[in-house]
Amino acid sequence: YDLSVSTYSPDGRVFQVEYAQKAVDNSGTAIGLRVKGGVVLAVEKIKHSRLMVPNSNKRIMTAGKHIGVASAGWTSDTRHLVKRARDEAHNYHSIYKADIPAKIIAERMGMYVQAYTLYSAVRPFGVSTILATIDKDGPQLYMIEPSGQYVGYRACAAGKGKQAAKTELEKLDLEALTVREAAKEAARIIYAAHDDTKDKLFELELSWICDESNSLHAHVPQDVLDEAIEYAERALDEDDDEMEDDEE
User: Fold this and answer.
1) What are the phi and psi torsion angles at 230 (to 5°)?
2) DSSP output for 127-168
3) Residue 244 reports pLDDT greater than 70
4) In this structure, what DSSP letter does residue 29 have?
5) Rounded distance, CA 76 to CA 61, Å?
6) How far is the CA of 33 from the CAs of 90, 106, 143, 145, 186, in angstroms?
7) 75 touches 45 (CB < 8 A)
8) Which among 19, 145, 181, 192 could bridge 177 via Cys, Cβ 3.0 to 4.6 Å?
9) 248 pLDDT more than 70
């Protein structure tokens, strides 16, 4: 029953979609936080070699001037979906002379992803994408899964560290956080979710869409990134010290 994506198993499962989800779960962690002033995206980009050029092969991309996309899963699939999102945003603007609302871009991308679960000639996308944008209703955050399901969130996580990340996200008072505070917390959560035993090297990617970026999606300035990394490393060291004290 797993040879074709168009075949259900007797208990109602589509194994190819589950395999696609497994590809997501084996990827570096990606999270999104929607706070009162905007949306922050963060990604744990695993570095498979010390020879990789820093800041290359980005996993946070811009799908429109007001749309950011973070991904967990196959980066090549992400690029394809980002191109599709750019086309959708451009077509909407061409017709209506306005930026595409968050719900519509999420719906259209969800329908596109779901179409790849219907035909035996194609395979599902092995990626979960987190969409961040600002529209007339304020900051918006959606996640689209390999099945094509899309859901709006206050905060969400995908990838191998999603359970640990979700636990930390649920502790946050998102309504009270500023975007700069959210950037620090996002960095802390990515560092906390990182598994040193399996992946030694990783690079933190941070982006936001808020008033500071003129409601445009952009990677955070270098000083904000450095401050967030320092905050995350300090919090991680404090947690390690507490664990050592408890053991003693």
Assistant:
1) -60, -40
2) EEEEEEEEETTEEEEEEE-TTS-EEE-SEEEESTTHHHHHHH
3) no
4) P
5) 12
6) 26, 17, 11, 17, 8
7) no
8) 181
9) no
